[in-house]
Every structure is written in structure tokens, then in C-alpha cells.
Design brief:
globular, 6-stranded mixed β-sheet, alpha/beta, ITP diphosphatase activity (chains A, B), dITP diphosphatase activity (chains A, B), homodimer
């Protein structure tokens, strides 16, 4: 069984491959697929975007596909950056610019209101028209100085509840265990396991 | 009667002076007050911030004071920039940077979801401990290219409902008549008129 992850992110591929429910499934990424078009992520929710990406992947490849959409929801910003997390600064995927902007916006917000959560939606779609979408969350709080070299995105600014380390200071397996994406992907894996046989 | 507007913005002073209910009241701004400290705007709502500023002004000057806090609430951004409007790019008061960032963030959002509203809270406080705070709103939609030379802030990107012009293309009196700040200031003026005699 082959499953396409609709992403070019090597870390996401590695994370998916570490999930037990996917052992025995050959997981490939978009870099393994020829001539894949870039579609705009114009959904209004994480779930919309994950499903849109999974459907696109099925349409262009004919393979069963998993896609995710994730981001950070800051309470003081009414849940923003949210689905705009990766392009918050206007520069898509520029983690340093996105982190710097978020910190600047929150400069005058008191410590006690720096609560946030990472949110991930994980979606599955296949050529038979089956679709599943689930959500995972990791609550925590923001700090004002980045810490840690691991992870990506806003990980260096985020301390998960119950931890003293930032998400960027956690080992990958520690992070998977509590992360929004880990939770969403495991829940998805369980639900779609019957389709992968 | 003297009334302090807790602002250094000449356009806001002029706007307040154009309000009929304030005719006969001498309105001064922070630039007319010596050694006024800059306080952080760390409230969680427009109303909080307007009241905080009005109270500060009373405390430092002993004068009756009016203050406002306003911004643009974009539906696709869950009401952000909101209270962060003036420092959205991290550069306080840099309209060009703030406008450019907002447009970049909304690049992939479909036209139909570019609805927004300007929101203003106007607050009054005086040495006798009286306080009033009111809210005004101007609904409309965003466009993708700035238009117009008037106004300030996000005005060049915003087309009020019922208009084809941006807020930056309206004459000051036209804008006052429909604007969030005009509505809030007129409502405030009516409520505080008895205190100004």
C-alpha cells in the first residue's frame, strides 16, 4: 500500500513514518511526484485546508493521500495567526520573520494573556471517494525569546502545558507524543487503518 | 470649559472640534500638555484602551479628558488586527507597513471573504470620577490595492458599505458622518454634554 503525504516537508514525512499505525505502509511525499501544481490554501479553517490539499493530491496522483494543515492560535489575537501561520509576515515559510512579527505584535500584551495553542487538522482522501478529517490541539503559552533548535515554525516560542521546555527543545519523539499534529495523525491513522489494507 | 483629547494626532483633534456638541468647548491635545508620559496600551479591548487613556490623562493633567481607541476588524482574521491595528507590522504608526502586511496576509483569501469593519471606542473621564465609554462601527470590505490620499491608517484599503469610494477618498465631513469614530464621538458628546457646562 502506498500513501501520499501532500507535503514537501521532510520533517512532516518523518513524523508520519514514525506513527505505528502506518508501519507497513509506504509513505511518499510530493517531491516523489512529478509535476505537482501548487494550489492556493484558501479554505477558511484548518479542516478545510487539510481536506482541500488531500483532495487535490488524489486528483493529481490517483493515490490515497494524507494532508495536514496546522498553525498556532494565540488567544490575545482571537485565534490568529491560525490558518495564516506559515505566511503571517507575508513571507510564506519564513519562520524567523513570522516569529519576529508575532513577538512584536504581542510586545505590550501582559504575560498572563500569552496563552496559545497549536492546532492541526489531518485529512485523508482516496480515489474511492472516502474522506476523513480530524483535529488535534496542544495548549500552552508563548515566551518572548525563542529557545531551542528543533522543530519548526513557532516551536521556539511555545511552551506546552505541563512542560518547561519549548516545543523546539523537545526531542522529536517527545514532541510527537503531545503535539497537535501527533494527536491528529494518530487519530487519523486509527480511523483510516481499515482502508490501508 | 477645557477638554483634553488624549492624543497627539492633529487629524483626530480636528475631527473632535468639528463635532457640534463640542462647540464652545476648548479642546486641547497632548502636545499642549507638558511632560506627558507614554503609557503602554495593554487593554484587551478597544473600550479598555480608550478608558485607560482617558484615566491616565485625567491623572496627569487634572483636566476632563476624552480618549479613543480604534482599529480595523477583519472577519477572515477573526477580528484582527483589532486593538493591534496601529502596530500590526510591529512598527507602531507605520501605515504603509501595516497596510502592506495586511494585504500580504489576505492574499489568498477570496474576495467574498474580505469583509471588515472599523471599530472605535470613545471614552470620557474627569476629575470628579465620572466615566463614559461608547463604541461606534463602520462596516465594509477590503480591496487589494490602496486608493485615496485622505484619512490615515487602513482607510485607503477600506470601502464602507453603501459607498464606492475608499475611506481615504471621502471628504473629511463625509467620513465623519459615517465613520466608526464619528459615531462614537457623537454618541459620547451627547452623553457627556451635561458635564461640560
Amino acid at each position: 500500500m502506498r500513501l501520499l503525504l501532500a507535503s514537501r516537508n521532510a520533517k512532516k514525512l518523518a513524523e508520519l513514518r514514525r506513527i505505528e499505525a502506518f508501519s507497513g505502509v509506504e509513505i511518499i511525499g510530493l517531491d516523489d511526484v512529478a509535476a505537482y501544481p501548487e494550489a492556493p490554501e484558501d479554505g477558511a479553517t484548518f479542516e478545510d485546508n487539510a481536506l482541500l490539499k488531500a483532495r487535490e493530491a488524489v486528483r493529481y496522483t490517483g493515490l490515497a493521500a494524507v494532508a495536514d494543515d496546522s498553525g498556532i492560535a494565540v488567544d490575545a489575537l482571537n485565534g490568529c495567526p491560525g490558518i495564516f501561520s506559515a505566511r503571517w509576515s507575508g513571507r510564506h515559510g519564513d519562520d524567523a520573520a513570522n516569529n519576529a512579527l508575532l513577538l512584536a505584535q504581542l510586545r505590550d500584551v501582559p504575560e498572563s494573556r500569552l496563552t496559545a495553542r497549536f492546532v492541526a487538522a489531518a485529512a485523508y482522501a482516496d480515489p474511492d471517494g472516502r474522506e476523513v478529517v480530524v483535529r488535534g490541539e496542544m495548549p500552552g503559552r508563548l515566551i518572548r525569546e525563542p529557545r531551542g533548535e528543533g522543530g519548526f515554525g513557532y516551536d521556539p516560542l511555545f511552551v506546552p502545558d505541563g512542560s518547561d521546555l519549548t516545543a523546539a527543545e523537545l526531542a522529536p519523539e517527545q514532541k510527537d507524543a503531545i503535539s497537535h499534529r501527533g494527536k491528529a495523525l494518530r487519530a487519523l491513522a486509527q480511523q483510516i487503518a481499515p482502508y490501508l489494507r
